[in-house]
Amino acid sequence: MTGVVRARVREFVVASDPGLLRLTAGLRTVGAIALTLAVLAPLGTDVRHLVAGAIAAMVATFAVRDKERAAQAGTLALGLPVALASVTLGALLGSHVVAGDLFFVALIFCAVYGRRFGDRGTALGLIGFQVYFLSLFVGATVSGLPSLYGAIGVAFASSALVRFALVPETPAGTLERLRSAFRARLAQLVTAQLELLDAGPEDVDKALEHVREGTARLHDTALMIQGRLAAGTADESVARLVQRRVADAEVAAERLGLLLLTARSAERADTLTLHLPGAPVPAGGLLPVRDKATDTLRRDLQALRLLVLRPVSAGQGTALSQVRNRLLGYRDEEHLPVAPPAVQDVFRGVGEAARAVLGLRVALDGPQDESDDSPATARSREELDAEDAAIDAGDEAAEEELTGLRRPTTRAAVQVAVGSSLAIAGGELLSSQRWYWAVLTCWIVFINTASTGEILVKGYRRLLGTVLGVVAGIGLAALVGHHTWTAFALVLVCVFLMFYTAPLSYTLMSFFVTAALGLLYTLLHTYSFSVLVLRIEETALGAACGVLAAALVLPVRTDRRTNDLLVAVLDRLADVTETAVDQLSGGPPADLLDQARDLDQALADLRAATKPLTHPVTPLRARRDTARYVVALLETCAYQARALAATAELLPTHPSIAADPRLRGAGQRILHNIRAIAAHVADEHSTDEVRTGPSIAALLEAGGPGAPRFGRVTDRVLRHLGRLDEGVVGLARPLGVPVARPRA
To answer: Under a CB-based contact definition with an 8 Å cutoff, are residues 612 and 559 in contact?
Structure first.
């Protein structure tokens, strides 16, 4: 029992923190701070320099984001002189108000502009800014520079030791943990689908929401794997293989969820139901019922989950291999239970998912035990081997580079410089000693944001987290009193939670930052209620200055940014659809995997950019609902395009799947409509119209007299094309694109 509980806990941790990235970030930062304090304290370092060392260790750890260890070492080595120069200038200019402020603004501009030079430029800019802020926070003086140099040197050395020795992380190790997370999240999604199968009328909406969440989390993990394949695998063919198997498993799992929804309804379920929050399960359900077929389906879903988590090996006997053989047999119509057609489709979907899990196991864990293979399993292995042999690396297309003020980093640098100037002026009116808090907030709200709306939402979240953190800081300060090491211990806890929760909630991160600052003020003997209230005022001022600068200086309106990203999504959708349909029609093999992931990444960017429009506090309810609906429709279209791409990838290696030239003509209307919508979004005066008419299947059947009716694979392709056609036409109404009446 203890082993089962341990396995469940491990599965939960792995799935909740893919790659253990948050845990690693928190442990590294806390470890670097603790090691710095452990070295400095025996040397008789005073509290002020202990605080400086702790902050420097934190900065040196979180600023470095290079993926390769050699690049990380190089950035750390360059970061130390940057930090020493920054703290020196902070001490020298501390008594020269005007010169210090001008330099601070120039430093902020350079730090933001440096993001265009990649991870290293971003890290060095961050180190320069944060260490200058450190000099202001601890009140650095010229006479105290030698001690500060020592504290900062120890901090960087401690950060390096923790990074490379105590909490090491390699691209290959991170990728391996992400693979485990993908399997854990795939198992969780199957569990959610099982819950949907069993849910009664009163629980079905909750179960469906769990399926939606599981599908989205699996997709996010697939994107994380995609972003680390190049660095985490030495062999490009291995990277392509993993990419292919992850994509297959993702599509198979999403298709299984859709088939389950269809089995619950009297009519075929709309794919949008899986992607639109709040969309109900279609009425007229066939399930849940208690009969032999659904009992078997329940057992098979549990078996599928077991196959995801546990490999079939010779040491386990034949029980698990027999389960695998049975599930794979459904692909060949073997032993399909007597049930309504919609329920039988679910069994076929289970078979396809089992085949995807088998391919994922082979790709991630190497050759498997084949001694107990059934004929169906042997055929699946032959298919996978043929696909593996056909995988070839594709070339990456060069992207257009913007120049001048059109470049996002240049625009952001100008905006944050103007905003910081306003924050300095306003902050000094509030406090001549702690004005830099306003500048820090203005700087932070610009990080990883690209539109006025995003900056507004981030500023609001930081202010909310700060207010709550002040309340916590008051309580913690009263709790620790003058117990220095108790305060440092609580600071370490807050720092760990800050980094662990950062990707989940910016409000929570801001809460823990402010709580830690209350403890640091206690250590520096500058704590008071008025100081924490001033912290709120400076934070509000900094956020306001950031929003004002973003709105008035080279503004990027949220509508403009979302429109640009929407056009990018539509262009990627057209590329994937056109290439997949061409290949399914008999065209040459193409690099569909990378195109599909480019579509996914473009959609992820759009989803992030629409957060200001879909935020719960937005007063524009109709606009919020429209944005959610459009993004959900695009997600359904992206799923259909991924499914088309996955089917097209099978053509070169599967003799049972033949190209159908009629598909090329059937896909032309979809491509026209996607491009018409993109043209209208890019230019509202566009005269292009969306075309409607007969179903995609009807278009295909019109291929000529005597043409053979399409087979099972072509029928599946037609279902995806039909759903894609419906989704694209559905985009026309909320986006205001005119729809042409079908010709008689």
So the answer is: no
Q: Is 662 left (phi over 0), alpha (psi -120 to 50) or beta?
A: alpha
Distance CA 154, CA 159 (A): 8
- Asked if 49 and 215 touch (Cβ cutoff 8 Å), the reply is no
Residue 148 CB neighbour total at 10 angstroms: 26
- Report whether pLDDT(616) > 70: no
> What gap in Å lies between CA 660 and CA 654, rounded to an integer?
14
Whole-number Å distance between alpha carbons of 81 and 225: 34
Name the token pair of 654.
Answer: 């599967």
Strand partners, 690: 739
3-state SS of the chain: helix, strand, coil percent to 5?
75, 0, 25
Q: How many whole angstroms separate alpha carbon 506 and alpha carbon 474?
A: 21
Q: Which phi and psi (to 5°) does residue 413 adopt?
A: -65, -40
Chain segment 662-720, per-residue pLDDT in tens: 778 778 889 999 999 999 998 888 888 888 877 766 655 544 443 444 445 566 777 88
- Asked if 523 and 396 touch (Cβ cutoff 8 Å), the reply is no
**Continuous segment of H or E residues that includes residue 74:** helix 69-93
Q: In this structure, which long-range contacts are made by residues 502-507, counting pairs with CB atoms below 8 Å and at least 24 apart in sequence?
A: 502/22, 502/25, 503/21, 503/22, 504/22, 505/461, 506/458, 506/461, 506/462, 506/465, 507/461, 507/462, 507/464, 507/465, 507/468
User: Residue length, the chain?
Assistant: 744
Whether residue 330 contacts residue 351, with contact meaning beta carbons closer than 8 Å, is answered with yes
If phi > 0 it is left, if psi is from -120 to 50 it is alpha, else beta; for residue 278 that is left
| SS3 per-residue string spanning 546-590 | HHHHHHHCCCCCHHHHHHHHHHHHHHHHHHHHHHHHHHHCCCCCC
Six-digit token string for 739: 């729809």
Instruction: Read off φ and ψ for residue 692, nearest 5 degrees.
Output: -125, 175
Query: First and final CA of the chain: distance in angstroms?
Result: 69
- Is-contact 491 54, C-beta < 8 A? yes
* DSSP one-letter code for 432: S
Tell me how far CA of residue 41 lies from CA of 137, 275, 710, in angstroms.
20, 54, 77
Beta bridge partners of residue 691, listed in sequence order: 740
Percentage of the chain exceeding pLDDT 70: 86
- Alpha carbon distance 410, 114 (integer Å): 9
Whether 415 and 550 have beta carbons less than 8 Å apart is answered as yes
CA dist., res. 216 & res. 600, Å (int) = 12
- Residue (of 166, 177, 164) closest to 75 by Cα position: 164
Give me 603's structure tokens. 């959609």
Q: What is the pLDDT of residues 134-193, one digit of tens each?
A: 999 888 999 999 999 999 999 999 999 999 999 998 888 888 899 989 999 999 999 999
Pairwise CA distance, residues 486 & 490, whole Å:
6
Q: In terms of Cα–Cα distance, which of 652, 634, 674, 644 is closest to 581?
A: 644
Under 8 Å between Cβ of 284 and 263? no
Strand 739-740 with 690-691, pairing: parallel
